[in-house]
Amino acid sequence: MSASQPHPRRVAVVLFNLGGPDAPEAVRPFLFNLFADPAIIRLPNPFRFLVASLISKRRAKPATEIYAHLGGKSPLLENTQAQAAALQERLGSAPGSGAGSAGLDGVESRVFVAMRYWHPMSAETASQVKAYDPDLVVLLPLYPQFSTTTTASSAKAWREAADTVGLTAPTRLLCCYPTEAGFIDATADRIRPLYTAAARHGTPRVLFSAHGLPKKIVASGDPYQWQCERTAESIAAALGIDDLDWVNCYQSRVGPMEWIGPSTDAEIRRAGQEGRPILVVPMAFVSEHSETLVEIEIEYRHLAKEAGVPHFARVPTVGVAPPFIDGLARLVRQSVANDRPVCAQYGDRICPAHFSGCPQGRR
Ligand SMILES: C=CC1=C(C)c2cc3[nH]c(cc4nc(cc5[nH]c(cc1n2)c(C)c5CCC(=O)O)C(CCC(=O)O)=C4C)c(C)c3C=C
Ligand SMILES: [Fe+2]
Ligand SMILES: [Fe+2]
């Protein structure tokens, strides 16, 4: 808050995530919500709604098969709620109750979850936040790297929902944290024991695998790929392994458009040809869901076997690892303490996300 504004007494922290179907019947409407988002399908209506109807109908069957491996639903909400509880514990709910230095001094806080494409969506969460009556709202995406398709889309949906319910408290968005120390250390901690095991089968190659994006979106200024590259470099450096062999790659391609590469499956095949053990590190996801538990654990493991990869390991996501949650708590504390419209990750320097309109700052 600036000198002219009182220090906040009650802060609502809203965790953004994508959301996932909570039952087989929810798969198609979840997909419709995703493809009807103008940040994903960049067409005017009524064409976008038409396309969303067609694609969600076509994609529903393979997607339902994916979620069938997970008991017919996505575990993303439970995992996000566990992260919300861990962050709440770290921040403390009452003034002075936070764990150690991560607490919000003299400030009461409550952590909420808002999903973009399935429940609880922004409208539901914004009503709960309004009832809590905070004097500051901090929006914290569970996407370390900024993309117009994720963080910006969630921020826009939030703003619309907040306006609809008349939530007028000042709001700050933590745009991105691709190289935040807690996130990087927690990921490196997850990799180390699996790297040691893989090294018994040859010199491992680490595949830093992120959700892909259509090339057109990156060409129009989305900083996601650039930030993913910074994340991979930072984790590789934190591992401190001499001559570490690593590569950046992209998974989860959908539809006929050209996507950024190299693709994770191409990298798995290359490792097979070269007889190299691999570790797949999901560096743009911070909890487990279909893309990690099915695409990496089942589909890529199978592909690796077929391709002749001598050893395959999926590195778990950071989840509620204390260094990661501490890092999130630090970001929230900085945001509460500092009302300038600067970037969570880059401080006073301009964040690359600002080139594509990172909506960091106050409303
Ligand atoms: C054109 C389509 C898509 C873009 C662009 C896209 C970007 C994007 N998505 C995530 C994170 C997640 N996506 C998840 C599932 C998912 N994503 C798409 C499509 C696009 N995503 C679809 C169709 C689906 C559903 C599953 C499927 O049909 O394959 C998920 C998992 C949800 C869950 O299982 O709970 C996440 C997480 C990021 C980070 C991103 C761009 C940066
Ligand atoms: Fe996606
Ligand atoms: Fe930013």
Automatic annotation (TrEMBL):
Record InterPro entries: Ferrochelatase (IPR001015), Ferrochelatase_AS (IPR019772), Ferrochelatase_C (IPR033644), Ferrochelatase_N (IPR033659)
Superkingdom of the source species: Bacteria
Broadest EC class assigned to this enzyme: lyase
Keywords: Cytoplasm, Heme biosynthesis, Iron, Lyase, Metal-binding, Porphyrin biosynthesis
UniProt subcellular location: Cytoplasm
Keyword Plastid in record: no
Documented EC number(s): 4.98.1.1
Reactions that this protein is recorded to catalyse: Fe-coproporphyrin III + 2 H(+) = coproporphyrin III + Fe(2+); heme b + 2 H(+) = protoporphyrin IX + Fe(2+)
Subcellular location, principal: cytoplasm
Gene Ontology terms: cellular component: cytoplasm
Binding site for Fe(2+): H211, E291
Known pathway: Porphyrin-containing compound metabolism; protoheme biosynthesis; protoheme from protoporphyrin-IX: step 1/1
Keyword flag Iron: yes
Family statement drawn from the similarity comment of this UniProt entry: Belongs to the ferrochelatase family.
Known function: Catalyzes the ferrous insertion into protoporphyrin IX.
PANTHER family: FERROCHELATASE, FERROCHELATASE, MITOCHONDRIAL
Protein's UniProt name: Ferrochelatase
Species, as recorded: Azospirillum doebereinerae
